[in-house]
Recover the amino acids of this structure.
């Protein structure tokens, strides 16, 4: 198992061990149902996977194809774009937006790209401060304004600055909560419109941050954001601290959205590109004994 898989599935493995103390070559349908549910794969999805299996000796390769099928729509293709590549980061408060922005920025910087951040969460002073701290730590420029100022103006200025200084990447933070859901919806739509004004075709990627510890309850939230502004990809955070690793399948199956990365810690380097094969095989290694 690779590092990120190990980290993101460690707690899930513990949960699975409570219903399947030992790895085996094959399982009955009932045994496997317990395992899948314990890993927090949603009931309906687990049932769909299992009822289609016409055997009571379910092996690794049979389950593997079902798990991979659930992740079928998770790969991402970058759209054609003119520099800078603009990303808008959205999600409910506490999901991990600001932390993930620092991780993305650090990653791009390490790839030799020039990155600029936009502190578009103008709702809370602490949010601006948090992103500013990261920008100092990572030595990456930031455009910000005072609390309560127009967040779309921040987005516009960030993109404008990026264009004039020939930056490669723009990452814009947004508020997770406003006074009402309608306010939030209107604000996000406006930011998105202003991005397009500042740099036609942008934002090139609107990324929804999902808190992995919420498991399946994050799905309704994600659907709401998708209807609000249209999501191009998701990043699932906090997989290091959750036994709900299996919820990735339910999230992917319900949303049919690309999974870009997973977050496995609070540090800038704790962000890993999501590889469905690596993830599925990591989970199967927990469940099945190797065939000799
Ligand atoms: N263990 C762990 N903690 C994380 C991860 N990502 C974020 N966090 C923590 O989650 C908390 C919330 O993260 P933020 O980045 O502030 O979340 P946010 O979505 O920007 O929140 P608001 O600005 O309030 O909307 C912080 O304490 C982060 O350190 C992760 O992958 N693993
Ligand atoms: Mg934040």
């Amino acid at each position: 198992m690779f590092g990120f898989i190990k980290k993101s599935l460690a707690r899930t493995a513990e949960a699975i061990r409570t219903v399947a103390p030992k790895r085996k070559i094959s399982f009955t349908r009932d045994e496997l149902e317990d395992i899948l549910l314990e890993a927090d794969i949603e009931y309906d999805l687990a049932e769909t996977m299992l009822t289609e299996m016409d055997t009571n000796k379910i092996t690794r390769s049979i389950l593997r194809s079902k798990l991979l099928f659930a992740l079928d729509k998770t790969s991402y293709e970058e759209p054609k774009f003119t520099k800078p590549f603009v990303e808008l980061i959205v999600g409910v408060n506490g999901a991990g937006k600001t932390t993930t922005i620092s991780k993305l920025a650090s990653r791009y910087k390490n790839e030799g790209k020039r990155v600029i951040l936009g502190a578009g969460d103008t709702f809370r002073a602490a949010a601006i401060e948090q992103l500013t701290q990261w920008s100092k730590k990572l030595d990456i420029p930031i455009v910000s304004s005072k609390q309560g100022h127009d967040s779309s103006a921040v987005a516009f200025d960030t993109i404008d600055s990026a264009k004039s200084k020939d930056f490669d990447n723009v990452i814009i933070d947004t508020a997770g909560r406003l006074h009402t859901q309608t306010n939030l919806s209107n604000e996000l739509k406006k930011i998105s419109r202003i991005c397009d004004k500042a740099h036609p075709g942008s934002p090139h990627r609107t990324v929804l941050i999902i808190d992995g510890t919420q498991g399946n309850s994050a799905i309704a939230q994600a659907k709401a954001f998708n209807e609000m502004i249209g999501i191009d990809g998701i990043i699932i955070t906090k997989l290091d601290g959750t036994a709900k690793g299996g919820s990735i399948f339910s999230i992917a199956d319900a949303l049919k959205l690309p999974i870009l990365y997973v977050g496995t810690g609070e540090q800038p380097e704790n962000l890993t590109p999501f590889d469905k094969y690596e993830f599925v095989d990591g989970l199967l290694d927990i469940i099945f004994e190797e065939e000799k």
About this structure: Residues 41 and 246 are 5 Å apart (CA to CA).
